[in-house]
């Protein structure tokens, strides 16, 4: 196995944005991750999958820093995440964006004000500039212009996800975390969302880690897939994982849903030719 | 993280006005630039640039592009020249998604204030209508329950009574005891000036029996049980439990509201009696300390001077207050829509409304008792 839990090395000289080594997380006596290695390279989209309770969200929270690791080294954007305190930690947050599962928009603020919160905190721009940026981000994620003045409670689930993405993108972060971004969306909405993430990722040069259960998303937009197996990460491209011999992986990717998603992908690529 | 400052100049290249930019154009670096730009008067003399030259720009992000586009006069289809493909992609994305200067939300404080007042009044009107409808529905369900007594749910009533009565005994006793002490102490201080300090016993007895015992208990119950009802029913509403009940064919009023109203209607007089006794005890303790009364003297004087109707007037109010607190608590709980945020909002409202209604009703009772001469 190559570095960082990879089946085959895909680094190709790219900068390592996230580097986890020998990480252990546990709640009480319950060990979630043990001896976990994981790497992410600049400019790629990585999908994080795993069975229920395998600790996908915990891993995401550990990388962001919401959940402390018991042991190991976590480097994000070239700095040791666990050694960050005070001003350095504050500045660190300007370069990462997180979209939480249910949006986690501040309910007392309008959508535009939500997007302005990180800008005000980290860039300190004037009101007019922030309004312009907020309006741009709202348009970028494909929401109608009048969404800005609405409260999160007035939005549908799909719109809340987009608004939350807009807030995560407020400062053009280098690293974007998405927690189940397409869960609860209809297939059409989900595939539009996938396209949106892909196009934003390409035009803004983002590095994206997304927790997902959506096999179509994995096929459509992820460069690599990281699977949480037995408290560790196994990462590779879809094709590598399809060939990987592990009962859970086989069932996940070769089960009826996995096959359907793979067929779709084959069809799409042959149509493209 | 600022790096090289963003700089720009307008130049003329072979007759084409060009905006030349260099340095770092990111959301973190444009702050000082914007401040300076606002102080300087806008360059009205130069013609609008037709091309933005980005070849000397080191770093660029969406906010930087937006700023450049604004400097170039918000032309949506302006041409540009870059070194890197990435910057070109970014520029194009911002260009296509740029919104013509977003409307500044205009706030005139007078219209805003008038609007707020109007909204509150309309809200209040709807609130009163909805509350009346809720009372009506509850009464209909209650009448139905009397027709079929097996629909009463004694277990639920007893369970609620444990929560609202037994668990409130300690706090009611402590607070009423302290109020009894305070009235007695103040009474002794003031009445001693007239040499009438023995009338402290009447002050304590009448004060506690007629008003303070029942009001204090009602306020404690509104704060601890009324709010709990709103939070419980509100959470059930958010979890769609109430919808689930309806689909099974259970009437939430019958299952959730009636037991709570019954529990509080029964518990309130019991609590008020308990609070009255604690208040008298507090008064008696204070009198033994400040007046050299014995307990026997205190209660003998109380029996002789304070009529039984003082006690009745207090205790009659208790079930009415209990009903209004329970009804408002449940009503606000069922008003919860959507998010958990509204649970908190409506819990606050439920407590404020209950206490408001209790005091208004108390005033009405005073008038009735005055007219009745008790």
UniProtKB/TrEMBL annotation, chain A:
Belongs to the ABC transporter superfamily. PANTHER family: PROTEIN TRIGALACTOSYLDIACYLGLYCEROL 3, CHLOROPLASTIC. It comes from Enhydrobacter aerosaccus. This is Phospholipid/cholesterol/gamma-HCH transport system ATP-binding protein. It comes from the Bacteria. Keywords: ATP-binding, Nucleotide-binding, Transport. InterPro entries: AAA+_ATPase, ABC_transporter-like_ATP-bd, ABC_transporter-like_CS, P-loop_NTPase. SUPFAM superfamilies: P-loop containing nucleoside triphosphate hydrolases. Residues 18-255 form the ABC transporter domain. Pfam families: ABC_tran. GO terms for molecular function: ATP binding; ATP hydrolysis activity.
UniProtKB/TrEMBL annotation, chain B:
It is a multi-pass membrane protein. GO terms for cellular component: ATP-binding cassette (ABC) transporter complex. The chain crosses the membrane at residues 124-147, 168-187, 199-222, 255-274, 280-299, 311-331, 351-372. Keywords: Cell inner membrane, Cell membrane, Membrane, Transmembrane, Transmembrane helix. It holds the Pfam family MlaE. The keyword Cell membrane applies. It is found in: Cell inner membrane. The keyword Transmembrane applies. InterPro entries: ABC_MlaE_roteobac, Permease_MalE, STAS_dom_sf. One of its GO terms (molecular function) is phospholipid transporter activity. Could be part of an ABC transporter complex. Belongs to the MlaE permease family. This is Phospholipid/cholesterol/gamma-HCH transport system permease protein. The lineage of its organism: Bacteria, Pseudomonadati, Pseudomonadota, Alphaproteobacteria, Hyphomicrobiales.
